[in-house]
Each structure stands twice: as structure tokens, then as C-alpha cells.
Amino acid sequence: MANGFEIIEFSDEWAKDFAALNYDWIEKFFEVEKHDSEILDDPKTWVIDPGGQIFMAIADGKAAGTVAMIPASDGVLELTKMAVAPAFQGRGMGSKLIEACVEFAKSYGANSVFLESHTKLTAALMLYRKYDFTEVPGDPNSLYSRADIRMQLDL
User: Fold this and answer.
1) How far is CA 43 from CA 46, 47, 89, 135, 143, in A?
2) From 5, 59, 125, 152, which residue has the greatest number of CB atoms within 10 Å?
């Protein structure tokens, strides 16, 4: 257990924590959108059943961070719903969550991973760049009105 936490794969017992961690940060910076609620309120249908995965960062038996990987199209995964509770930020949790995503993408056989974010989330963007995500043109059909940057990692 590095830095006092571990990264585990999702199970139903963590569903409420997955939702709560994400609702907290979304409501702090933006407004919750329809697609947020769909994923957060029913992660099994939207993430797990299509072949994706959710990773949870667990510290002292409690959910401290999370991220989801959702199949988007053939060979492409979306990294989404990444959140680390404020009390746990700065401990390397985000890095370990990204590393779990990259390993998952490789084992999945993905060619690339994309994410949508917002330019005011500077710490998140720095983290994504650290792992070689680069800015690509945005998706005009994005399901998130708040998304003003799209980044991609080619594998």
C-alpha cells in the first residue's frame, strides 16, 4: 500500500462513494449534467457492463479517489469521472489512478484513451500532461457543455 492507500477495481459496495466523490467536485466547479447523473447513478450499466472499469483509491478503508474507463468506440476508451477527495490530494493518488487506467487500456487492447475536461482544472490538466495526454480538437457532439478541452493518449 503506497502512500497509505491502494487502488482497487470497482465492486457494488463502492457505488455510492464513486457517485459522491464525483458529485462533490462537479458541484463545486460546475453544474451536474444529465450524462453525469446517468453514469454516477448507474455505473454498472454505463461503465462496467459495456466492458469498462472503475478504479477506487482506498485509504484507511474509505474511498478517497476514483476514475472510470468507458469503451467509446473500437479501440478507444474514455477516461472520465476522475475525482480525489480534497483531504487526500497531493499524495500521488491521481497519478496511481491514471497508471491503473493506462494499464487497463493496454490490457483492453485499446489504441487510444481520450478525456474531456475544462481548462480551469489546471491541476488535472497538469496530471494528464504528465502521462503524455495531448490536446486534440474537441468533439462538437460532446455530452458535456462544460468540456472546453479534449486530450488523448495514443498507446
Assistant:
1) 5, 5, 24, 27, 16
2) 5
CB 140 within 8 A of CB 150: no
**H or E element in which residue 17 lies:** helix 15-29
What backbone phi and psi angles, to 5 degrees, belong to 65?
Answer: -165, 165
Q: Is the pTM of this model over 0.70?
A: yes
Q: Note the pLDDT tens digit of each residue in 69-99.
A: 999 999 999 999 999 999 999 999 999 999 9
Task: Please report which helix (H) or strand (E) contains residue 84, including its range.
Answer: strand 76-84
Query: Quick one: cell of 10?
Result: 470497482
